[in-house]
Amino acid sequence: MNWRLRCVTLVVGSLLGASSLCYADAPGAGVDPISASSPALRIAAVHSHARKLSFDEPDLRSSSALIVDETHSRVLFARRADVAMPIASITKLMTALVVLDAAQSLDEPIEITRDDTHAGKGAFSRLAVGTKLPRGDLVHLALMSSENRAAHALGRQYPGGLTAFVAAMNARANGLGMTHSHFVDPAGLSSENVASPEDLSKLVMAVSQNPVIRDYSTDKAYAVHAGRRMIGFRNTDSLVSNPGWNIIVQKTGYIAEAGKCLVMQAIIDGRTIVIVLLDSFGKYTRVADAKRIKKWMEWRLTAELANEG
Hints:
Elements: E1 4-11, H1 13-16, E2 18-25, E3 42-47, E4 64-69, E5 74-79, E6 85-86, H2 91-101, E7 109-111, E8 132-134, H3 135-144, H4 148-156, H5 161-175, E9 194-195, H6 197-207, H7 211-217, E10 221-226, E11 229-234, E12 247-255, E13 259-268, E14 271-280, H8 285-308
Antiparallel strand pairs: 1-2, 1-3, 4-5, 4-14, 6-9, 7-8, 10-11, 12-13, 13-14
Helix pairs in contact: 3-4
């Protein structure tokens, strides 16, 4: 199998600094150079001499994917990584980031109103109109359980209202160098909320620096007081309950136009890895793809150690 190796320069803010980065461009992988101007992730592609690599690419079913070894500043795999696609509830990572950037009180109560309701498939919510919850609980539910009304209420209660909030989302994306991204709502129910896998890797790296987002997005379960009753919620990502995974931050997403989506930062074989999976077909494909990536990386490490020995 002939592979083409591309080398690039990577700057990941103060986290990684500048370093050389290489990734394999396998036939049919759909890998294109990553290009963005960002304090979080700046990559300029240049070509190197072709050579034969000893590792096959992971067998993934998601139509777009990106795997970044953040520890060693390397892109391990990319498929349609620069193509903007609907991202559904992955949007809520940006929603939480903008809310927390604004330093609004997490204890301030916010009421769910009819303005937070949305008709149509995928707009399900367990928060009834009239429910009052602290802003922190709404952030928690938006990240952990992908609560749509919670996310919309957070945007509505932003200084200047929903219009100002969406503008802040796009400004934050621009600041991160997310050049293929655009946001129109805080919940991700619109198919006009789009980003490329490259852009989402930058977003994941940015939110991983926020302890609130890390804790809330990886919480397994949470219950809130809604009037006189307690409502229990569970994480939409089953991998957070899997003892074989060490997930730092994650978010799932789904609308019909986006398919099943999953982004995460996890520790695999002692390395910090960012995984972006978009447009996975079927209920379990995104989780199965993540598991395939983990096994592929473990096999690579075993092979590398054997070669060194």
